[in-house]
Amino acid sequence: MDINAKIHFLLNRMPELSIKSIDKISRGWDHDVIIINQSYVFRFPKKEHGLQRLLTESMLLSKLHENNLSIHVPHYELFYKEKRLVCSMHKKIDGEPLEKLEHLNSAEAAVQLGAFLTTLHNLNSEKLMQHGLKTIHTQRYWEEFYAEITSKISPFLRSSEQKEVKMIFDRFLSNSQKHMHPIVPIHGDLTGANILYHPARKNISGIIDFTDAQISDPAFDFAGFYWEHGPQFTREVLEHYHVSLPKEELFQRVSAFYGLQPVFHEWLHAANGKSDPNFEKGLDKLRRLQSLQ
């Protein structure tokens, strides 16, 4: 379905809609996104399996809406054509993607994010699994991820750098085999691109894009804080995170692996896109974060 067909479908579905502006966003891996009148966001899954994920995402969001959140999350309306899911619609949440903590009151943001993750991670995993929420980050997932790093990235690294990367993965894979960590519903991509802040109020206004939501290690949801803002802010969020889990063990998993692995995704994404992965910049940040542990 091209852009014209999508607009035609939406006008049939919402005949009262008067279109003044259309913004098309196609950079995502999973969805084509159309924003109409800077007010309504429509997400069209690019692949068949994305339709089921959209249903599951909608169910997760409906459960979150049953709680008193201080941060807005999308409220989906699902659009069908002849009983087949086509797209979702939600009202656009005001805010800008969070790039730097300097843009807001970091202490208030830590309270908001800690409370949000407390709510999300305390949702009933069993019920969400019945509605299709799965575990993606299995031991096998990480082993295959490391194998891909070894085949596509390691040849471009010096021997000493290969050993650095190997040590990070070996330690994580060995520990995850020995210790079973609790698994809970997680966002799965809680980075600045999906955290919106309000420039005037200088606080978090919303969290979007639950495409990667799954049942997994709660520590993974702190990875973006660690990689983008460092260990101090990560600990501040943890102070306002209230679950019956050992927080120091959770932080150690973040600082030893989850908070470092974004660089490997960045390298792979660049390599698969035939662009420069900028290994030196990634390695410098990796080492700097490790020195702060």
Automatic annotation (TrEMBL):
**Is Cell division one of the keywords?**
no
Q: This protein's superkingdom?
A: Bacteria
Q: Which UniProt keywords apply?
A: Transferase
- Keyword field contains Transferase: yes
Q: Give all residue intervals belonging to the Aminoglycoside phosphotransferase domain.
A: 24-241
Q: Note the InterPro entries from the entry.
A: AGP_Transferase (IPR051678), Aminoglycoside_PTrfase (IPR002575), Kinase-like_dom_sf (IPR011009)
Molecular function as annotated in GO: transferase activity
| PANTHER family (alphabetical) | AMINOGLYCOSIDE PHOSPHOTRANSFERASE-RELATED-RELATED, BIFUNCTIONAL AAC_APH
| Protein's name in the database | Phosphotransferase
This chain's source organism reads Bacillus mesophilum
